[in-house]
Amino acid sequence: MAAKIKRIAINTGGGDAPGLNAVIRAVVISAANKGWEVVGIRDGYNGLLLPQDYPDGGVIPLTRTTVRGITHLGGTILGTTNKGNPAKYPTQDKHGRWYEADRTGELVKLFKKNKIDALIALGGDGSLGIANLLAQKGLRVIGVPKTIDNDLKGTVATFGFDTAVAFATECLDRLHSTAEAHRRVMVVEVMGRYAGWIALNAGISGTADAILIPEIPYDLSKVADSIKYLETRNKHFAIVVVAEGAKPRGGQACVVSKELGRQEKLGGVGEQVARELQELTGRECRTVVLGHLLRGGSPTTFDRLLSLRFGAAAVRALEEGRSGVMVALDPPKVRYVPLAQATQRLKTVPRDCDSVLTARSLGISFGD
Fold it and tell me: Which residues are marked as active site?
């Protein structure tokens, strides 16, 4: 039988997403109702690993007062990072050379030193992969799926996705008028490293003419042909939505940089697509990169409710003695999925899914 819980911690890792604060509020209130103390770890795990860098010590108490009025706020009151992977922590040797060190064993000891009985970790595939490592080393951990990319297996939806798609769709709506007025091709780059869910959903909803996603390598000559065909139907503008991880057939995704201890940084595919389409079509092409705008702002009603449900379910999971699991949406219920299973592989867009079939029926080009 699991030991009795007195004190739990919560942290947020990876990119920020609308709904993080709502999860924090749900965890704190649900735990307080059970008589548990809750603390928050600053910036992923850095608050524990680098306490000297924080005036408040890196681990802060979370109370009903602390989380009052934060449900509607974007971002995270705890801060987050995509650089502090404790399994590959950037470290200098005595010669000043940098390397990646595994500090997960040290981290588990720090949890015990701080008398933390369990952790509720909010994150995407990278952060929950770390959470799974900590669970394997004996820490009680519950994962909560956060990613605007909606690419985590085992859950129908992740919080932050609905908000990102809603904003991207609004942007596409606005771009239609200026594209038509100037008879331009507008190329809109959205987030989506390995999965094209944002591009697909926003592109269909925003009546795009072409959608380029990582799962379907594209041939721009085919996209150009579809744009030229629009001319024969007296449509003199086009909207092309591109996921940042989209790649040409036989080519690679556009990488900006790769830093020690973090994922490679993608970007520039929108500019590349616009430049080549302008040459192929002879039409003026402009690029809009939505980027981190998709991560900001207040969560939609769907994301707020999902976040609150996930937070409350994570506390229930600990009360039931569970560990090493992720809360997951399986309508109409929230269930528990092993972290190892949830992080084994990403949930990418199937080529034969209904949304792709719908897009093709509507005449939207995928460049294939």
Answer: 149
